[in-house]
Amino acid sequence: MDPTMRRAWAHPVVYALLATGLLLGLGAASPPALAAPTSTPVTGSVTGPTVLAFGVTGHYTITGTGGPAFASNGSLVGNLTYYITLAAPNLTGVSVTPTSAALSPTVNGTPFLTVGSFAETVTMTVMISSVYQHVNVSTNLTYSVRVVQPYVVSATIVNVSSTTVLSFLVTVDLDGAPVGSVTVPTITPGGEYNLSFHYATVGLSPGTHTFSISLASEHGLVVFAGGATSYSQSFYVTGPAPNYTLWYVVGIVAFVGVLFIFLTRAAARRRGALRR
Q: Pick from 2, 26, 30, 55: most CB atoms within 10 A?
């Protein structure tokens, strides 16, 4: 190499320019940075039955969104997960599954809550966690479920035809309004099925109420035991116990008033006797 060229390459300014060019070249070849996380708050919801009968399993839906797991354009770049814990005076027979699962804008959580045979309130605490890299933001939701002694409707369905009746659905009405349904399995000729429907409610108004079921849509292939195609079961709900508190107060006031009058008159008679 020409001595003049060697001196030029050895110049510090040339080295600095070369180093800058290499760094710029490396920078241009590096992968693009991920989208920055959004500052949207973490939110969510829990939906499902708020009243369950003893020993019943309820289906629930959990949704979630927001937090660092979502980029500014709304796409999911991190992890969004729900976690469930249960609280109740008696957790015997109470469980939820799954206790945690991933969420996304298109996938909801679908846990199942099974309750025990105790009248109580079960509280589900649902934490929704939004995570991106080392940033974790969460929110807590609470959902209360009343566990109650159910009203039970029982009946026997008989296949009186000569053919097999495939599985069908019957609707249960309460006072003329549908409150649930029961799936009757396939019944062979001459076979029977013992239907049982559990109705959970926190209370009915005082008076007579009637459950009713109809098999009219099965065109006489099946009937209830006894031959009828309709079945009803009535029961009576008593009203709340009367509140005697007011009468107690009135009675006490009246007694005090009578006692005061009696003592006043007795004192007046004693004063009159002393004057004589």
A: 55
Residue 136 CB neighbours (<10 A): 15
Backbone angles phi, psi at 150, to 5 degrees: -85, 160
Cβ–Cβ < 8 Å for 223, 215: yes
Distance separating alpha carbons of residues 120 and 218, to the nearest angstrom:
40
- The span from the CA of 122 to the CA of 55, in Å, is 13
As given in the structure block, the two tokens for residue 18 are: 């070369």
pLDDT in tens, 4-61: 444 444 454 444 443 444 434 444 444 444 444 546 999 999 999 999 999 999 999 9
pTM over 0.85: no
Cis amide bond preceding 206, omega within 30:
no
- Name the percent of the chain in helix, strand, coil, to the closest 5: 20, 45, 35
Helical residues (DSSP H) of the chain, grouped into ranges: 3-9, 12-29, 245-275
